[in-house]
Input
Amino acid sequence: MINLLGFIGTFLLCYLIKRLFLKNEWSPTPAGAIVMANGIFLYSAMKQFPLLYEHGKLFLFILTAVWASIVLSVLSTLVNRSFKKRHLDDPIQLFAIGTWVAGTSVLGNVIHQYSLNLGVIPYMMGVLNVVLYLWYIYYCMKAYFVIFQTTAKDQVHGVLLLATVSTQSIVLLLYNIFDQIIPNWGNTIIIYFGIFLYLIGFSLILRRYIVVRNWHIADDWQNTNCILHGAISITGLAASTTGALPYPFTLFLWIWVIVWFIIVEGIELLRAIARINRFGIVKAIGNYNVSQWSRNFTFGMLYAFTASFTIEEGMLLVPLRQIILDYGAWLVLLFLINEILLFFKAKVKWAKKTDHDSKRGHPAWKKSVEV
Output
């Protein structure tokens, strides 16, 4: 009862702050990534910071209030009948609905981890999230056919991989919240289904950036491409948590993540340099875009995956794993603080609109131009 009152009080306080100090804007489709990025930090990396961990419940209340605010914003689009136009009409953008599923799953896991006594609320969230996931995957399947048959396939990016992220997040949610309600063979099937979805998105993205080639690194490389490694990180976390996949395959997934982390973040570094040379440092890396939370999520998920399993002594990968565990939490925290500051810089009522905001509005990952 005390925890429920604490959440209600935190929600009302956050709502008041939002009304007084933040711009009155609709939550874009990928807004759930805010919950994903902050939630995975609370779930794993924050344990390395005792002072923060002591106040974990307070941060969880705030994150739950943010999640509730996003839910209310989405529900309001159903009321005013703008839901389809805002979230479903674009066959690529609709994959961002996966952030609602994954964000809710991550939040549910954090609530479980902190043992909050919220009665049936976490279970209701879980059941509704499974229903949302099934609805979402249905629309993803329809979107795949549209993408393959139209020129949309020439504009794809990492947002497609949220189909995998949402799938594996459901595995973790059901395993933790519902006390391993699905037998291990069921977890195995779902995880492999997520990998199947990853291979579809992966092949489309590689075609977009290697075969088509009509892109420039400063403008057309998307923040969401970080999910190339993040989607496998959550796959590995689901596999190591449930034990549904053989250890050698889980280790292979970890190696895959490391390789693609190096490739993607190397491209991200080159992109940042190209944008600074073209636009200057403030416009290049100092503006906020909702897609930037995807990077925070993937960094946090890499740490969570790495911390969830061990590597046998004597293997060459042991030092690399230890480096990630020793320094990765700091990297996740610093990126998260930077993103939160960029968010408030852009969203406070007296903040000036960027050129991108004034000309295009919020593209919601359709054409993200900030780092």
Notes: The two ends are 43 Å apart (CA to CA).
